[in-house]
Amino acid sequence: MRLAIIIPVLNESAALPAALAVLQPLRERGTRVIVVDGGSHDDSVACAVPLADRVVAAARGRALQMNAGARDPAAADADVLLFLHADTRLPPDADRLLLRALANSRSTWGRFDVRIAGRSALLPLVAAMMNGRSRLTSICTGDQAIFVTRGAFLALDGFAPIALMEDIDLSRRARRLTPPLALRARVTTSGRRWDEHGALRTIVRMWRLRLAYFLGADPAELARRYRAVR
To answer: What is the pTM of this model?
Structure first.
């Protein structure tokens, strides 16, 4: 089975070199790394070119960028697609873990457990809540490095072209196909938004946005509210 890692970026030049550096051993084992730029004004593209198999330009928006990466010819022969945030680090053997798990399961998608790196003492609790909630609901977030077989991704018609909650939407549709694999190996994601805005305030804000989404709020309006706070 072949794996392609798709990383949507927008002005991530500060984090991107380190993010791509840790993926080089996976590239040596045959994984393709595709960076999809949404119109960065910094050096994100220049940083990505020597460390990725492909750098793709796409319309701004995480869902749009990830779909563009999945459609790129560099991912055409991949059996599994993994969608990775620029500030999230995979464990060193992530490729082997997820491919082995998929080969030994009827599941067609899944995610990793997450740990959050940051200053707040609440972040281990936040991560534990995210992981536990995901196991109970089969809803996964982008911070957990969602992966999906190409066949399932095509059957789902990819990510919905919405401005926010594209990971929640994909999970809700994908769990109708199969339950997700919940790998206990942990990815490490940046706690910068919790550190910048306060852990409790960020938790409450994200729960309010998710509740509004589940109650039918327009994702574009939720995205405007999210960006306004940031």
So the answer is: 0.90
